[in-house]
Design brief:
13 helices, Aspartate Aminotransferase, domain 1, three-stranded antiparallel β-sheet, transferase, 41% helix, EC 2.8.1.7, alpha/beta, Aspartate Aminotransferase, domain 2, globular
């Protein structure tokens, strides 16, 4: 991978050297089960709770409110399915948006099979949810609303605070998937009007296979895993101790470096756009122009299909992404871009560049120049 320009950090990130160093003792020496009562277990338990305290501190949360999971998907499922099931005697209506990650959308589909009714809110052309649409969708039997903090495809940041304040007044449980926002935006759980918040380690240079759900006090959630009494009987299964320790270190590093990282990502976006403007190629940036995650740039190049661009970039040793799902070797149109009601030519030519700690501004410029060459070659050949 050393010769590849990797611009797909929204998909996953490399493990930071400090994270690997923090994890290693818990893969080799401190291997006890945190539930065991002997000395090895107690040592593991101490490390587990220290990691919980650290992550809670960085996201301004009560340590008791953090439930460790196997990642963002499980955290989303626990919030959506567990939160709805715990309240099914009170009501069976759930609200979400058309642009959520599939971890939320498919959890909502599961709830529909279980007898719930789900309202999927539309978004505008910038990918933003309107507070007015939330207000109109709420019913007396609404028990849960799940709206992501920042979109993983186009980066649009949602009006979480406005929506949360309204839902608090209505007494409706509010969950936000903050997987893409965590680590690039300051997340202050206790200051946000949310009841549940999902985060993941591998998006912030931590290990894969570990995440967490912030669960506010007195928020009803039914467990979706059954077994032991780990995580205060809310999530059964032996804790991924090394992963959790790595998650804590990744959170610490991300917090320390956040301002510098964000500044660098903004420089990269500006550099790429400057190259394309100078080259005179047609391009269209998707998502909100200002209310957007700093590390995501979703851009369309009319006349060059997404799949064609991705293949050409891959041949040039540049890793980028589409927001589309890959089915049987071909790309389906992104559900996010469809919900934004973009013109067909824009939606079918969208590419997501997402930045991380391994990137430089010069690399961003180099990738942009390659894109310009590809566009010029393919558009001219038509």
């Amino acid at each position: 991978m050393s010769d590849m320009l990797y611009f797909d950090h929204a998909a996953t990130t490399p493990v930071h050297p400090r994270v690997l160093a923090a994890m290693t003792p818990y893969l080799t020496q401190v291997f006890g089960n945190p539930s065991s009562v002997h000395a090895a277990g107690r040592e593991a338990r101490k490390a587990l709770e220290q990691a919980r305290d650290a992550i809670a501190s960085f996201m301004d949360a009560d340590p008791q409110s953090l439930i460790f999971t196997s990642g963002g998907t499980e955290a989303d499922n626990m919030a959506v399915i567990g939160g709805a099931m715990a309240q099914r005697e009170r009501g069976r209506h759930v609200i979400t948006t058309q642009i959520e990650h599939h971890a939320v959308l498919h959890a909502c589909e599961y709830l529909e099979q279980a007898g719930f009714e789900v309202t999927y809110l539309p978004v505008d052309k910038t990918g933003s949810v309107r507070l007015e649409d939330v207000k109109q969708a709420v019913r007396p039997d609404t028990v849960l609303v799940s709206i992501m903090y920042g979109n993983n495809e186009v980066g649009t940041i949602q009006p979480i605070e406005e929506i949360g304040v309204f839902l608090q007044e209505k007494g409706i449980i509010f969950h936000t998937d903050a997987v893409q926002a965590f680590g690039v935006l300051p997340i202050r759980a206790r200051q946000l009007p949310v009841d549940m918040l999902s985060v993941s380690a591998h998006k912030i240079n931590g290990p894969k296979g570990v995440g967490a759900l912030y669960l506010g006090r007195k928020v009803p959630v039914s467990p979706i895993l059954h077994g032991g009494s780990q995580e205060r009987k809310r999530r059964a299964g032996t804790e991924n101790l090394a992963g959790i320790v790595g998650f804590a270190e990744a959170t610490k590093v991300a917090t320390e470096e956040m301002a510098d990282r964000v500044a660098k990502y903004e420089q990269m976006k500006a550099a790429m756009r400057a190259v394309w403007e100078e080259a005179g190629i047609a391009f269209h940036v998707n998502g909100h122009p200002t209310n957007v995650l700093p590390h995501i740039l979703n851009v369309s190049f009319p006349g060059v299909h997404t799949e064609t661009m991705l293949m050409n970039l891959d041949l040039a040793r540049i890793a980028a992404a589409s927001g589309s799902a890959c089915t049987s070797g071909s790309l389906e149109l992104s559900h996010v871009l469809v919900a934004m009601q973009l013109e067909d030519e824009i939606a079918r030519s969208a590419i997501r560049f997402s930045f991380g700690i391994t990137n430089t501004v010069e690399e961003a410029r180099q990738a942009a120049q390659t894109v310009a060459q590809i566009v010029n070659r393919l558009v001219r050949s038509k």
